[in-house]
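Tutorial handout. Part one gives the primary structure; part two gives the three-dimensional structure as tokens.
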Amino acid sequence: MPGAAKSALGALAALLLAPSPAVGEYFPNLLLNGACDAAGFLNGLRFEMKGRTYTGAPYYKATTRNEYIYWDPDCGGGGDGQQRWIIDDSEPDTTKLRDLDGDGQCNYYARFDSTDKSKPPATAFWKMNCGGATAESRLIVLADITTTLTTTTLTTTSTTASTTTISSTITSSTTTKTSTSTTSSSKTSTTTTVTSTTQTFTGTSSTVSSTTSTTSYTGTSTTRTTSTTTTTLMMLRLTGVCPYKDFLEGLTFVEEGYTASGARYFKAAEDEQYLYHDYDCNGGGNGKKRWIIDENLPDVTQTEDLDQDGACNYHARHDSDDTYGPPTAAVWQIWCGVEWVNTILHLDMVSNYTYDDGMDESNSLKLRSYFKKSCQQKEYMNNLQFEYQGVTASGSPYYKSVSSDEYMYYDPHCSGNVSGSARWVLDSDAPSLTALADLDGDGNCSY
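Part two.
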């Protein structure tokens, strides 16, 4: 098919898929906040629903910029990708099943892995490109802005005033008569004697009467009523696990949404760990309902065997019919290396959560004690404070220690060889702000 014809066909398909305004229809518009500084231009953008993609999922466009939110079953197009919501500067192709931006890879601002294509989550941790080598976890809030069209009947009332003029002639005859007339303007009286005279008076009397007629006009007046609702999500901090599962200790599980049973499910803000309710963990039809802590993302379209492994493999379980939420303190069975152990686990509510990505309010980084005894020659770098200095030619930020000549920067090819691997570097040499590769100019990867 010629390119122009294909483009026209795609445009026509997008037009046909777009929702047409109708009285009483709900328009799910979204207000975005929570993006990191590198993508701060996204904060405060209002996204309006523009239509639906080939899968039937809605997609959104910012009202003031060419930024989009859409669901893509496979952003790389290879057939083996993860289903996810995407924030991108490319408009999705509504005629394609996968790789909706058509770039053959997964390039975007942010992603949220989800099998639920009905709408993006109101509040969730997204993986966002914040200028670093790896995506950072950011709490993105998509506040719901409700817009409703209403019909108003307009009634107009008109009043017509009419004046009726009546002319009359009064004739009186007398032979000899004395009459008194009064002139109202001067308030004086005059007496006159008339003999054998006919007196004729012609005057005008005015009567004003009002008639009211009512005319009704019915039309449609479009009234947009908007309200913004921010979802308050449940956040639970896990404590009490056995040493074998110490990587779970202190994790904060943040509400992600609901599964097919109507139960909440949660994801740890710090790791790929999940908390969900399963009617039957192996799908055999005779299992017990329970809350589960697992490393596998639950399938929110299922009520049984949500991790789809056909078995009951997980970190811990608590048998319960209650789908509202897991207990705040209860006995769980947790796998502790050699056997299942009955352990009291606490899931305490937290009112707020700040994800520690290593950056403080002054936009600086603190290098924690990662250099242990096995690398004593580098122990002097422990706890160095690195301050943001600017960006290099690739657009990546770079940092300098406040107390020594140590630098942290991103180098696409540290030796200058285009076949080299991109990496973040800790180095005593300041990076070049004009070079695209080998930023320390040494011709090799020494740092």
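Part three, for discussion. Residues 1-26, 147-231, 353-364, 366-374 have pLDDT under 50 and may be disordered. The helical segments are 3-17.
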